[in-house]
Amino acid sequence: MKKTMSKTTKSNFITYGMVIVIYAIVQILTATGSLSSLFKGLLVPLCIYVILAVSLNLTVGILGELSLGHAGFMCIGAFVGSFFSKCMDGTMPDGLRFFLALVLGAAVAAVFGILIGIPVLRLRGDYLAIVTLAFGEIIKNIVNVLFVGRDAAGFHFSLKDTMSLNLAEGGEVIVKGPQGISGTPKDATFTIGVILILFTLIVVLNLINSRDGRAIMAIRDNRIAAESVGINITRYKLMAFSISAGLAGMAGVLYAHNLATLTALPKNFGYNMSITILVFVVLGGIGNIRGSIIAAVILTLLPELLRGLNDYRMLIYAIVLIVMMIVNWSPKAQAIMSRYTPKNLLNKKKSAKEVN
Amino acid sequence: MSFISYLINGISLGSVYAIIALGYTMVYGIAKMLNFAHGDVIMIGGYVVFLASSSMGMSPLLAVLLSVVVCTVLGVTIERIAYKPLREAPSLAVLITAIGVSYLLQNVALLLFGANPKSFTSVIPVPALTLANGALTITGETIVTIISGIVIMICLTTFIKKTKAGQAMLAVSEDKGAAQLMGINVNGTIALTFAIGSALAAIAGVLLCSSYPTLNPYTGSMPGIKAFVAAVFGGIGSIPGAMIGGILLGIIEILSKAYISSQLSDAIVFSVLIIVLLVKPTGIMGKKINEKV
Amino acid sequence: MKKYSKLLSLLLAGALVVGSFAGCGGSDSSSDSSASKADSSSESGAADGEVFKIGGIGPTTGAAAIYGQAVKNAMELAVKEINEAGGINGYQIEMNYQDDEHDAEKSVNAYNTLKDWGMQALLGTVTSTPCIAVSTEAANDNMFLLTPSGSAVDCVAPENAFRVCFSDPNQGMASAQYIGENGLAEKVAVIYDSSDVYSSGIYEKFAEEAGNQPFEVVSAEAFTADNNKDFSTQLQKAKDAGADLVFLPIYYTEAALILGQADKMGYDTKFFGCDGLDGILTVENFDTALAEGVMLLTPFAADAEDEATQNFVSTYKENYGDIPNQFAADAYDGMYAIKAAFEDQDITPDMEASDICEAAKAGMTEITIQGLTGGEDGISWSADGEPNKSPKAVVIADGAYTAM
């Protein structure tokens, strides 16, 4: 028992170490000025996708439920955080405001996680998937018709258009339906991103290795058996689901503070985004946190680095995706691959036994 | 009177969803995988008919037949190359591969046919039906879509119930391992499922494009998702369920646009779906499977 | 054993990433086919090797690809023409066009890629939301930005940003006034895309201005990008409300469906649109009889009689097989506006991007270009980035645009 514990601890430290080492390398490269603008611009998005992938892995890998609405939680976090920052800009120090925006965005997303989780987690498998997908689309749709303005009398809400807000003279429209929120202060930096990644990792890895985490994994492995030994299924499911949602909301706040404009387009908050995040998780290995990080980084960089291929870019991306899935999961490909692992090449006889 | 005409509009939109959902549910029921690329096979089917009839001047019937053949070959090829190696993999891995195939088809279409939308000429020669002195019209496309939906539904059910291949499908869907032990060619059966599913996609493509005559590389993706929702709505895996789910979805969509809010109709449709699933977690026609410990 | 293969596949993917990275770095200037095209034609012209590096950004994949590709093609065409005619101030232009998939984040990535390439001025981005994100980035770098078609108000909020097209409120206002002043209708219905910045922007201003005009908006119904196939309900509501004109501040892809569905349900009414409707006649295989009588306010019509338009349309068709839409025309004018502004201020490629921006900003307010979208008085710009040009009202008669 002691040995396995130390093994997981070691593995966790490798994960933390990896993030810190990459951070250090990037800082050195930035200081020496050898980083391209593209790469500099990609640093914060990379952090966002890593957080999203790790948080979704908590739902998919640890809790064992398929969620296709992760972008919905991200969207909630983004809009709440951005709205807060727009309202409070100038009334408090920027650092504090951004911190509060992060907390608020994460909290609201987590609350939504619970609200949706209570009814929805009764469902299983593909039905849960479709309901989470539906939820994500509902959020996107509502945000697209949401108008919020502020004047001397306070806040005004409308689901129709700016005119129906009935703003007084000098009032300001903050959320403009499909035009979303523009002019959110650009507070997100790579350092903050990395701190948030580490925070996410601490939360998720500690949860996994705790008593609660083992209960959650017991539910994943066999729900009925877990129930029969007295594990409160709903409680633990909700716990994992809402933590996952909260972390996604936090990533959303980071997203909102990285770009000058925030709109809920199908591309950034629709089911396509949820699926993109799911791809990171599945490719990195379901339940494998470090794998999620690596997959998120590689797959976010890939389309950017394929820019030289122009029109063939997304085509190549699709092919790489299919090939990677087949290589990763097909037994035949596995057999071929295992023949060529470094260990096997060194010691053929021994590995032949292992394969069998 | 306007309610009735909304209802008719809903049915005609729903019939298109239903016909797409039939293919979805068929593949899901037997291969137990969400074939996200289904919507894009529909798009390819639409392009084949478009090119064959508009550019090459083929007769509509011939063009539709060609499209069925092309889609069937395409579906079986996709299954062979992308899905078959992953038969033993977790269902999520297959889902992601299907998404990859969907991106692939969209981008191939974008390169081949360009991003400009094409206007599809309806291949359905049936005239519209006018009722109540012209206050209500049911388009020929709607009539044909509903009739073909029902015909396909009956054929599929009969096929599965009465033929040997159909029984094999049923067996594979219940227990792959046991089916194999009974001497059923599992791979062959799944390939056949994909062949039928893709042929249905071609027909759905023709009907979709005839009812809503624009065609671009992304034509299939949103109707595909909606049809998937419809299939779940009706109880995924159930063939009559897909038909009912599709039509209900269309009606709800149109009525919510008409009487509640045209801006929020997506949100309303999805909310109704959530509520239905909460009340009846396996969909309208879905069977409850008891879990064994 | 699984672990190894997984590791290996990740390594493989990593190798691919690094490989393509190296590939990009190695062939920087020729990585883009369009850049190399412009490159090859420029070799003869610029002996000293100095070229203007002008970037473009727009969606060439994804659902908005049609707009980005039109801009890319027209930009390529304009660059080729300018280079053949001796370039800007005697210097050739090299262009590099990057895809943004109609996503703000991807657009900023594209912008950074272009910065790495050495971009000195940007013609883009094509769509509004990404444009707002990029124009803010560009403002930080003081990079000159001229968007051909980013029509949201905020697109040109920074000082360094200008646009070729009309702003959304501008179009909404002009449409309402045109309908009112010409007494086209008493009861107006609107069908707009509530998930689209362009469409909802026009609608809002239109509805606001309608209060000052002698007509009444009797129904305003929306659709969304996820729900853009069936318009029977919106049309039915317009019909039930007795609207004698339907205002369509939307793009022609959806408008083509709306016209078809209105015809099928036997709803005979007037349709009025903005520049987004331009292109409807050129949709391959579209039955132009459906668009008979449709009125639109647009700065560009592909079958206008003037020589410039005719030349542009025929060369475009020759090269890309399609008939250009207003996005293409705006991009083509944008390129010539950059040329004019650069020539006005004697800008040379050896200047820093930031200095070019300062000079070009001053240049933009000085110049007037005729262009394809300029109408009779041409286009001039004010310092806030907005163009001054007059929209043309055209009506579709016998399958062609006719001036009203």
Write up this protein.
- The complex is a heterotrimer of chains A (356), B (293) and C (404).
- By secondary structure, chain A is mostly helical.
- Chain A contains 16 helices and five strands.
- A three-stranded antiparallel β-sheet of chain A has the order 2-1-3, covered by helices on one side. Chain A has a two-stranded antiparallel sheet with strand order 4-5.
- Chain B has a single domain, classed as Orthogonal Bundle (ABC transporter involved in vitamin B12 uptake, BtuC).
- In chain B, helix 1 (2-31) packs antiparallel against helix 8, helix 5 (140-162) runs antiparallel to helix 8 (186-211) and helix 9 (221-234) packs across helix 10 (239-259).
- The termini of chain B are far apart.
- Chain C has 404 residues and is of the alpha/beta class.
- In chain C, the strands form three sheets. Chain C has a seven-stranded mixed β-sheet, with helices on both faces. Chain C has a five-stranded parallel β-sheet with strand order 2-1-3-4-5, with helices on both faces.
- The chains are: A mainly alpha (356), B mainly alpha (293), C alpha/beta (404).
- The interface between A and B is large, with 49 and 43 residues.
